[in-house]
Amino acid sequence: MMSKSLMRYLTFLLTSLLAVQSIASDIVWSNINNVPGDLISTGDGWSATRAEDVGSYRIAADDVFLAQRTRITGIEYFSIQVGNPDILGGDLYVFSYDNGIPGTLIAAFPDLPLNHYDTGLLNTVFNSNVYGNIMPVIGLELAPGRYFFALRTVENRAGGAKNGILTTRTAIGTARAKWNFEVTRDGTVNLSWMDMSAFNSVQDQEWAFQVHGALVTEPSSFTVNLGKLTQGNLASLANDDGNALRVCRFIVPNQQVAPVTVQINGTASILSCSALKLTVKSHMVHAGLFSQTLDLFNWNTNDWDIADNRTDNVNTTYTTVDLNGTGNLSRLLRPSDGALRARYRVRQIGPAATYQWCHEVDQAVWIVTP
């Protein structure tokens, strides 16, 4: 028969695992070696906060390495509370990596909404609940490389309560936890960065946060199945930069096919995923009535998937559309090698300004969530 003490331990363990389960599927960088163990056992917490009511501009920073192009969707850090803090939001800044310290400011996201929640974990050193803090991020895409992410809580501190970010004592990355007393709302750094070891003599400290996002997979090749390529190359598909791939109506063998049909191929850096979508930014060069169809390739049937496709009207204004994969995604992301395949097809569905109309794609990439 199971003892009450063992039952309580198992219940606690299950609660701890469930508390972090929801944040694990889309993590592209974790600055925590052991979740939830390190959050429970650490004895280090710090008031990295922007509290303008008391003139505080303290901030935490640590290095993050991205192995491939990544679309950042959020950052989550863990904290303990002193009192009942008046939390207003959060700040996130991305700096270049400059010989082990934050360098040039790349992006600033002040006053982000902050989802501050009780994880259900109990820190045994502080005898305090561990809180999660999620800041959603929109419009941040980073190339492969090493960066510094700086973060803090925005709060009112007149009453003395605060939301203290935790550090752990396992080295991750190439730099240890950094601190600055004076980084303004717009990301201007007014004082030198410091190692956290200056405050407690602990060398291997890391801020307890995780970066959420998705991997951007660019096409590695493309084939114009129907139509005539008149402008652009493979690089035209990788970025939203005005360098478009133009394909025009040419020889059409019959009325059933789309006069412009282009297949793209790519290889993801992971062999399984929790979400997958194709995102395409395109427009027509010439006026008229046209439709564009996006298709994802099904590796199980070795044919274009009958469920995962979408058709939209397309005109001379650039528009970005997403085709989300559904169901068992292993049929779309080949588990053996990460292969991806998609295509876009363009048809004339009404009057057009010219017989040899053209279509342009400024970007076509897969967004793959771990």
Radius of gyration: 25 Å
- Count of helical segments? 3
* Low-pLDDT regions: 1-24
Counted beta strands: 26
The average pLDDT is 93
The level of helicity is: under 10%
Q: Mind summarizing the main beta sheet?
A: 13 strands, antiparallel
End-to-end span in angstroms? 40 Å
Strand content: over 45%
Q: SSE string, helix = H, strand = E?
A: HEHEEEEEEEEEEEEEHEEEEEEEEEEEE
What characteristic shape results from the CA principal axes? elongated
* Integer count of domains: 2
SS content category: mainly beta
How would you explain this protein's 3D organization?
- This protein has 370 residues and is mainly beta.
- The protein folds into 2 domains: 23-214, no CATH class; 218-369, Galactose-binding domain-like (Jelly Rolls, Sandwich), CATH 2.60.120.260.
- Helices cover 7% and strands 55% of the residues.
- The protein contains 3 helices and 26 strands.
- The longest helix has 18 residues, at 4-21.
- The protein is elongated, with a radius of gyration of 25 Å.
- The protein starts with a helix and ends with a strand.
